[in-house]
Amino acid sequence: MAIKDAAEEVEPLLVDHHSIDLRRAASNSTSQLALIGSSVSPIESLDFEIFENELLSQDWRARGGRAQIYQYVLLKWTLCFLVGLFSGCVGFFNNIAIENIAGVKFVVTSNMMLANKYMWAFGVFAVSNLMLMMFAAVITAYIAPAAAGSGIPEVKAYLNGIDAPEIFSFRTLVVKIVGCIAAVSSSLHVGKAGPMLHTTACIASLLAHTGSHKYGLTWRWLRYFKNDRDRRDLVTCGAGAGIAAAFRAPIGGVLFVLESLSSRWRSALLWRAFFTTAVVAVVLRAFIDFCRSGKCGLFGKGGLIMFDVTADNVSYHLSDIPPVIILGVIGGILGSFYNFLLDKVLQIYTIIHEKNRAFKLLLAICGSIFTSCCLFGLPWLASCRPCPGGISEACPSIGRSGNFKKFQCAPDHYNDLASLFFNTNDDTVRNLYSAGTENAFNKYSILLFFVTSYFLGILSYGLVAPSGLFMPVILTGATYGRLIGMLMGSKSTLDHGLFAVLGSASLLSGSMRMTVSVCVILLELTNNLLLLPLVMLVVLISKTVADCFNLGIYEMLLRLKGFPFLQGHAEPYMRQLTVSDVVTGPLRVLNCVEKVGNIVHILETTGHNGFPVIGEPPFSQMQVLYGLILRSHLLVLLRKKYFLSSRFSARTNVFDQFSGDDFAKCVSDRHDGIGDIVLTAEEMEMFIDLHPFTNTSPYTVVETMSLAKAHMLFREVSLRHLLVIPKFPSSAPVVGILTRHDFMPQHVTNLHPFWMRGRNKLFQFRNSTVINMFRGLWL
Amino acid sequence: MAIKDAAEEVEPLLVDHHSIDLRRAASNSTSQLALIGSSVSPIESLDFEIFENELLSQDWRARGGRAQIYQYVLLKWTLCFLVGLFSGCVGFFNNIAIENIAGVKFVVTSNMMLANKYMWAFGVFAVSNLMLMMFAAVITAYIAPAAAGSGIPEVKAYLNGIDAPEIFSFRTLVVKIVGCIAAVSSSLHVGKAGPMLHTTACIASLLAHTGSHKYGLTWRWLRYFKNDRDRRDLVTCGAGAGIAAAFRAPIGGVLFVLESLSSRWRSALLWRAFFTTAVVAVVLRAFIDFCRSGKCGLFGKGGLIMFDVTADNVSYHLSDIPPVIILGVIGGILGSFYNFLLDKVLQIYTIIHEKNRAFKLLLAICGSIFTSCCLFGLPWLASCRPCPGGISEACPSIGRSGNFKKFQCAPDHYNDLASLFFNTNDDTVRNLYSAGTENAFNKYSILLFFVTSYFLGILSYGLVAPSGLFMPVILTGATYGRLIGMLMGSKSTLDHGLFAVLGSASLLSGSMRMTVSVCVILLELTNNLLLLPLVMLVVLISKTVADCFNLGIYEMLLRLKGFPFLQGHAEPYMRQLTVSDVVTGPLRVLNCVEKVGNIVHILETTGHNGFPVIGEPPFSQMQVLYGLILRSHLLVLLRKKYFLSSRFSARTNVFDQFSGDDFAKCVSDRHDGIGDIVLTAEEMEMFIDLHPFTNTSPYTVVETMSLAKAHMLFREVSLRHLLVIPKFPSSAPVVGILTRHDFMPQHVTNLHPFWMRGRNKLFQFRNSTVINMFRGLWL
């Protein structure tokens, strides 16, 4: 039976936002081991277990009063309210800034084109884009690298219990907001929904951390919030608020978090998340009312994207099902191919990014210039079309957004490609979703825009700037849907605007593999519930098809970043392994009364976060498992020098010296190491009585339990450590510790390569095409 | 340290649908103990744990092939599809039957009134109502008592792991469908949504049970479905389909299950539930298309309730917030008072129902006659109003539903109360929700209808017939909302139809304490997403206010029925108790090789469902915990007479004699007792080797663990038994077993009455008004 230690530092390290080196490292065990003892701060797991030791029990008893509960409840809801309020404000601010910056840019360029100064127009367009992009790239690369990308995978990992460094810092928050505004305004083909979600999750985390000493904001009430569980709940609410603010979709926001982000859910949380998004909705509503009076610059009433597909008589019949099925199938294929390409591109980008920061910036510059060329150059390929008669809209629309961009055309003509390319993404989507515009676009224009948008989206995401994936996917999907609608021609009676909505749904679900939340978000965006059955159908088909080929985009990004993400289900072969098959040695244990020197040595030589404590004679009759102690608690003890002169000294009253607050987890504590603590040689010979600080009731499993069953316990109760006890009494009362790394398929297959390949047929076709689908379906 | 046995038969027994005797029994421990050994079949818990013994491991290995997984996946999705299909069909059938039966009744009566035969009209109306009601009551009382009421609490209990007898039987299904049609058609003030949910959950459960021998439908593929986990998942999907079918609200259905019913949730389930409700939506859509051609009798296009509040310009501003807040506060108070009254009325009804079945029927007769009198008599109190000019609708509307009922009025006049009372509930709600009808109703008419509807709803629910609560609450709420709108007068610019929607939301959330699902269902019903922020606001306020006073309606019904429902959170005082404080003796254990006579004796004298198996010398060095064996498995062994002649006989190859299927749980097995098994005296002296049948890795906790922490494990992993092991090695390797009953607050407070009262301040104010709210809020 293998004895093992909690090899927690055998963790992929987060070198860079798009780092994949750890994935490579994880794929062979030698390089993985080489990471042990690395000085880079490791990704920490979070503690969601109820930690029971004498000290905290005492603390809990002391605070069991009525007033404390009121405080706690009030605080919880106040924080949710604040998260909602701030999210609403940030959402509004982001939108208004982007609309105004991008708007001014487009107005200036359009005016130059009206005066036939085409080269000047291009120059201004390209240079302003480049400047904005450079600004975003520089602050991201130099101030907060963690702010790059959408941030959704990081939030998802956090909710799973993985605490990547700097993800929720104040620096990251500021860079994310400013960088996102700059990047999106620079006409880069990226969205603002993902960064918005990260921003609001960040706000939630910072609010929950206000008790931290680091920011000098300690407030007595907040001490009840110094635990990972409440923080996770608040971050969950914050993430929902982000989607609500980005899409003005409060229900969709809650569902997105529930479906795609959250690893654990309670119905009480549903209510609180819902409250948060309701606050966001009300705040946004109030701001929009305010902007109706025209005080918000170029920001109009449609400023927060909201596409009214209000063709009152959206009607469809069973005969419309076949085109919708085709749409779903192709959407699924396109979506999974999108993920495939994105994966490859990100791997290439990572190699470039790893060289040094200048390369990152160079890549961003290339991206920006290429985008500007596409957006300005491609519309010239389209021929000018005469304005249709009998429409209420101005044609060509000058100095404002609209379906009919003049671009280089003669009066009374418009350029249909320009109204797609030379516009903000929001306006383009609005144009594509608009009903009754069957003839506004040329088939080849739509095709060209679709291809460009598809690849620009893939190329733009990995650049070093805050960038979301939602908007490019919605946009590309809408174009694809309209294209299918055009190709169907008279075979379908559905409106092309409706086709565009369905196309967005199919690509979203094909790429991100969301189902319910896509439906709800699209319904909230388009304000048309009658679409629901069609959207549902297309979403289900698209996801099923896409699942045949590869993983969803977030899972893919999580793998790329090397997070030890704990899946909701165990792999089938885990039912045939016992926990003793995966625990590997050596196990480090502490005695109930342990020598300071030993503790320091163990803390210095390992990176483990938890150690079993063994009760020995004379404290108990024989060797028994007394409990589990955390590294962070040992560090507090060493720092406070709570030492005994000999093993049998009477201990002083511990409750006078410590309060529960001393052990409450703070941000600032996280990165304090053993190195900071200075101890004399004399102190090293002293002892610590660990009794009052040990969690006396850790969850345990018997060594013969199958890995799948232990996985279920580990995941459902959100554990960080799981002790393995022997089946039959033996000399050692504990066999090993399981941490989340022991459940990683990568780790298990490294330990049992032969067994896996030979015995288990399931495993053989794990990577085959078909099983991918079934893994999704059979849960 | 108390040694205890799994006192599983100390369970409230389900004597009757509305039985409260067990609640009384549970409140003092002597009468509770008196129930032990009772012959009434007990409520069983369900097994959601992965059960690991040699036999099943072997079985799992054998079926690990690719084909089996395909079968399993295909089966899972096919069953979901079938549940959706059947649910859609049943939903449509129910609606069409109710519309036609009730429609014919109203048309006949109205025609008589047109001919001035008022007494005849009342006679026909009252007698037809009475006949329908009697039919519903008789089949419910004599054929399937479990079909009475809404069935939602039973489904909720099932998803929590409580398997009440006959809840999902075929008999119950048929009675529920037929009885619901009869009861709702009889103009009783009950809804059809709750019964619909029970019906579809029943369909799901029966489909998952098709493998059962009882119905002779065993099919080899279905054996993978013979476990409680897959059944629960399918029932979850079925419940969502019910709400989807009742309200044509597929997203609302999924959310309702997620928020109000389900105790456990996985994102994979979200997808499947969503698929099921999508199928329902498509099926309903197809049927409605079919009915457009007029082939469905009186069933029109609005037949499935769907209230279009399509005032295109629903606009509201911050100034509309105060009336909405008032609406929410009063709605919360009314909702909680509704629950309070319903609780009292149900208790009285229970006392009456317990006498005998004739009393049940008598009560139903009284209810029906009283309702008929109200519906026919009260409209006479209203004065006739002249028809408004310039409306497109016919006035008075004759021979069809409409806002303007002629009733007893002169031509060109209408009776506004009659259009509320003398109508199907669906039509009344449609009238109340209609926009731009500020002057159609008199203030006092609305008030009278509100009061009548409020109390009729409370009085009607407990009658012995399938009856839902949704519709009465929606209806009463809509009236209340309109009343508030009228009282506001010119102070608010909101439409009265909108006020009605908000009123429904406030009463629904005040009574049922749903949040997100109410919002979504109302949005799907009214097809107007712009209402969202207002609905959210009103729902949140209303729930918060109502939580101050009492429990939600489903929790109240669960308590009334005496189900041992396991809450999602532990009570605060549970943190201060250890598991050893609640385990009570005596513990019955089995040896690994046990004498048949002992097993029979234990099975006869206890009702426990699980027994610890102890490994003894010579099978192990010392007494160790070998595992846990289930009563049902022991019964299989006894029935198959898998006996050894002596304790040390070599065991035959068990895998030849048994397959996993023998132990798969079947409906028919559930109620087979030990009494059916005939054993000779010789056989009683033989032995059974329990090794291959024992679950060798049951979840265990150490006796010093707090009850709250054990509760979390028990609930999150959905356990049925939790073994308690000693902290320090002692003679007994197991201290006790925890079952869900040990976590019931009732049980804990019975064991520790003094401790609770004296030491724990938290507990003292558990029942106070304010803490009720906070218990809801602080989770």
From TrEMBL, chains A, B:
Protein's organism: Platanthera guangdongensis
Subcellular location: Membrane
Gene that encodes it: CBSCLC6
Family: Belongs to the chloride channel (TC 2.A.49) family.
PROSITE patterns in alphabetical order: CBS
Lineage of origin: Eukaryota, Viridiplantae, Streptophyta, Embryophyta, Tracheophyta
Domain CBS residue range list: 694-754
Domain of life (superkingdom): Eukaryota
Transmembrane segments: 73-98, 118-144, 234-257, 269-288, 324-341, 361-382, 444-463, 469-487, 499-523, 529-553
Entry keyword set: CBS domain, Chloride, Chloride channel, Ion channel, Ion transport, Membrane, Repeat, Transmembrane, Transmembrane helix, Transport, Voltage-gated channel
Identification of the protein by name: Chloride channel protein
One Pfam family linked to the record: Voltage_CLC
Topology with respect to the bilayer: Multi-pass membrane protein
